[in-house]
Design goal:
By secondary structure, this protein is α/β, with parallel strands linked by helices. It is 46% helix and 15% strand. It is globular, with a radius of gyration of 20 Å.
Length: 261
């Protein structure tokens, strides 16, 4: 992955995590084909070398108008010229599906606008950290299209059918506080605390065995009819891992030192 060639995102790769910031300030982080291609390349890298992914947007200081934005949606200039053949490709839908399937958790750190495709990108994450300045919604029908990159089903799974219909059909835009009230946002913090809090969540995840987290995420998304058989097989696999023995031995040693005989 040659990040020097990336023009729509910035990347900070660390030992256990990767921070990706969407960076198209002139168009409020509108998601264009170039950004889709670069995010696919990031997914390819994280599929081969699993790490926690933190994806975020621009702070007010980085935005030309001084207003923070996660992603304002798909690039309307490109979207205007797409026809049926492009729609059948599911350009954003396939990307967000791939992001959702990454081996380790994805954290969306959201400040400001997360609309249309930007909201659907956030829905694909495992966790969403936001600020009171969040404005999240799916105004696609106002442009003669629909939320076709996961909005029509992921959103209902996250917040329930009644509220999802308000957002998808009646154009309701949620504030950060409203998102937090319905648990669409897992954690609500001030803008200056957004990235530190996202890293705290990544730290919390990193304290667990990465393989166990990876297996748990994979089993979690299995269909209802696959359980309990898939759980049993996954647990049997984990029972043989070295981390299981090391971590349980350490737990037993700590308990023994805390309660000497």
């Amino acid at each position: 992955m040659n990040i020097k060639e990336f023009t729509t995102v910035s990347i900070d790769e660390q030992k256990d995590r990767m921070v990706v910031a969407l960076m198209r300030p002139a168009v409020r982080n509108a998601i264009d084909q170039k950004m889709v291609d670069e995010l696919h390349e990031i997914c390819r890298h994280l599929e081969q070398s699993p790490k926690i992914l933190i994806i975020t947007g621009m702070t007010g200081k980085q935005a030309p108008d001084g207003e923070a934005v996660f992603a304002s949606g798909a690039d309307i200039g490109e979207l205007r010229n797409r026809r049926r053949e492009s729609g059948l490709l599911g350009i954003n839908a396939m990307l967000f599906h791939r992001l959702a399937l990454l081996p380790l958790p994805v954290i969306a750190a959201i400040d400001g606008f997360a609309l249309g495709g930007g909201a659907e990108l956030a829905y694909a994450a495992d966790f969403r950290i936001g600020t009171p300045h969040v404005k999240l919604g799916n105004p696609e029908p106002g442009l003669g299209i629909m939320a076709a990159a996961g909005g029509t089903w992921r959103l209902a799974e996250l917040v329930g059918e009644p509220l999802a219909k308000e957002i998808l059909l009646a154009g309701r835009v949620l504030s950060g506080e409203e998102c937090h009230e319905v648990r669409l946002i897992n954690d609500l913090v001030a803008s200056e605390e957004l990235m530190p809090r996202a890293h705290e969540w990544a730290d919390r995840i990193s304290r667990s065995d990465p393989f166990a987290v990876r297996v748990t995420k994979a089993v979690f998304r299995m269909p209802r009819e696959s359980h309990p058989e898939v759980d049993t097989l996954a647990q049997a696999l984990l029972f043989e891992s070295e981390q299981k023995f090391e971590r349980m031995d350490a737990f037993l040693a700590r308990r023994s030192s805390s309660f000497p005989s």
